[in-house]
TrEMBL record:
CDD domains per the UniProt record, alphabetical: Peptidase_M17
Keyword Cytoplasm in annotation: yes
Subcellular location: Cytoplasm
Protein name according to UniProt: Probable cytosol aminopeptidase
Lineage: Bacteria, Pseudomonadati, Pseudomonadota, Alphaproteobacteria, Caulobacterales
Residue ranges of every copy of the Cytosol aminopeptidase domain listed in the record: 336-343
GO terms classed as biological process: proteolysis
InterPro entries: Leucine_aapep/pepB, Macro_dom-like, Peptidase_M17_C, Peptidase_M17_leu_NH2_pept, Peptidase_M17_N
Species of provenance: Candidatus Phycosocius bacilliformis
Keywords for this protein: Aminopeptidase, Cytoplasm, Hydrolase, Manganese, Metal-binding, Protease
PANTHER family: CYTOSOL AMINOPEPTIDASE, LEUCINE AMINOPEPTIDASE-RELATED
Annotated EC: 3.4.11.1, 3.4.11.10
Length: 496
């Protein structure tokens, strides 16, 4: 969607904001002006429809005067509490209602609203609109005309918004990339195809290096390679470097990229297995974050590393009971081949530390179903060896509206990963049924963090994709979770 910032909007479709004052319907200043131009028809329509201005409520008023075809009234709740985040969501709701309406150009009435008609808020309106307009229709060949998006341009009536838009546009591009990657089917987005798409980031100034299986074997990355050995697709390690911060040590972002996860020999139940095309959501988030960071020319050094594999059950597949040697030299007893993400991450984390000497390292992964039991689809799980890094991530998640919730890491949980025949096992019990699944997975990863490295693990199994969604900015499946959080974290805590 194209976003324009101009004081002279002439579209025949307008989005206006209506809220409440002490529980009573109250039109915003721009909505009041619009209502006067419509001779009170908007207020009359709101009263007739019992539209109360509550946040998220939408009312379309058609042909309210001779010039306008439709005015979309969007509720924002208590007017005194409206801020940029509220406007972002409200704009998204308005765009959702117009997306397939036949309207091609719409405008947002924001000018004249004291303290709210700012450049930053105007840009956030455009940001919410673009997130709401996202569609993944690549393989839908028989859509009827009325099912296809018609809205292509949104005008925001605050011309100064253009000043703040470039950075928001970069994040939109990053989120869209992450969503596209998660939504792609696994027969299209296998490890080599994923790596090829990431190579396109070189156009933005990102240095991209791709390591194949021979190179990873020479490095001793047998934990990662063991996961992919049952697939006809070659595993890949993609390294994306953005050098915008001088000589400082980089922040390392590590993503789990299991392009499809059958569970391997420890085969998953068939019901819902199609969702495992999204088991590369962590890699998608890292890729999207690198797209956003490079797109806005962030003054920071960031290296994104994603391990891309396919976990399949053929005659060459890894078996329960196997012992593999990781790049770190530590040995791992495989009790369950469906606990594969940690086996990928541990080698990529070791490579990141050995090769790039990061000041801090954050990994993102759709790692455990247990995190969904704990947090549902509202929060991602946060685990860390650093209170300071955890605080920065938590704050960034809150401000970006991609929240996290921190879980404990202690020796009591760590010892549950001890093995009697290797340095560790990849799950605490082969038959399942053990508790603290998300915590023990994080404890496994912590064993691969070198002394002095600040590290955090974010389990996004409940947030990378959602079966249904009441956030107007997000689609009903691949959300692109993590891009906004990581971009905000870099902007607030790692830029010079």
């Amino acid at each position: 969607m194209k976003i324009e910032f101009t004081s002279f909007t002439e579209s025949k479709a307008v989005i206006a904001f209506v809220g409440q004052t002490d529980g009573t319907v109250a039109f915003s200043v721009p909505a009041q002006k619009l209502d006067r131009a419509c001779k009170g028809r908007l207020a009359k329509a709101a009263a007739a429809a019992k539209f109360n201005g509550a946040a998220g409520k939408v009312l379309s008023v058609h042909a309210p005067n001779d010039k306008l075809d439709v005015v979309v009234l969007v509720g924002v709740g208590e007017l005194a509490k409206v801020d940029g985040a509220v406007l972002e969501r409200a704009a998204a709701s308005g765009v959702k209602s117009l997306l397939t309406s036949g309207v091609e150009t719409a405008s947002v009435a924001l000018a004249g609203w004291k303290k709210l008609a700012t450049a930053v808020n105007a840009a956030r309106v455009g940001f919410g609109a673009c997130l709401a307009a996202y569609r993944f229709d690549t393989y839908r060949t028989q859509l009827k005309p009325e099912q296809k998006p018609s809205l292509t341009t949104l005008e925001v009536d605050v011309a100064e918004g253009a000043e703040a838009w470039a950075a928001h546009q970069a994040v939109v591009d990053g989120v869209s990339l992450a969503r596209d990657l998660v939504n792609e089917p696994a027969n299209i987005l296998h490890p080599e195809a994923f790596a090829k798409r990431l190579k396109e980031l070189t156009a933005l100034g990102v240095e991209v290096e791709i390591l194949g299986e021979a190179q990873m074997a020479a490095l001793g990355m047998h934990s990662l390679l063991g996961v992919g050995q049952g697939s006809v697709r070659e595993s890949q390690l993609v390294v994306m470097k953005w050098n915008g911060g001088g000589d400082e040590a980089p922040l390392a972002l590590v993503g789990k990229g299991v392009c499809f996860d059958t569970g391997g020999i420890s085969l998953k139940p068939s019901g819902g297995m199609e969702e495992m095309k999204g088991d590369m959501g962590g890699a998608a988030a890292v890729a999207g974050a690198m797209r956003a960071i490079a797109g806005r020319k962030a003054k920071a050094n960031v290296v994104g590393l994603v391990g891309l594999v396919e976990n399949m059950p053929d005659g060459q597949a890894q078996r329960p009971g196997d012992i593999v040697t990781s790049m770190s030299g530590q040995t791992i007893e495989i009790l369950n081949t469906d606990a594969e993400g940690r086996l990928v991450l541990c080698d990529v984390m070791t490579y990141a530390q050995e090769k790039h000497k990061p000041k801090a390292m954050i990994d993102l992964a759709t790692l455990t179903g247990a995190i969904i039991i704990s947090l549902g689809h509202e929060f991602a799980g946060l685990f860390s060896n650093s209170d300071a890094l955890s605080a920065k991530i938590t704050q960034a998640g809150t401000l970006a509206e991609e929240p996290v919730w921190r879980f404990p890491l202690t020796p009591a949980y760590n010892k549950l990963m001890d093995s009697s025949v290797a340095d560790m096992k990849n799950v605490q019990r082969s038959g399942g049924g053990a508790g603290a699944g998300s915590i023990t997975a994080a404890q496994f990863l912590q064993r691969f963090v070198q002394d002095g490295v600040e590290w955090a693990h974010i389990d996004i199994a409940g947030t990378a994709w959602k079966p249904g969604n009441d956030d107007p900015r997000e689609p009903s499946w691949g959300t692109g979770y993590g891009v906004r959080l990581l971009n905000r974290l870099v902007a607030d805590a790692f830029e010079s």
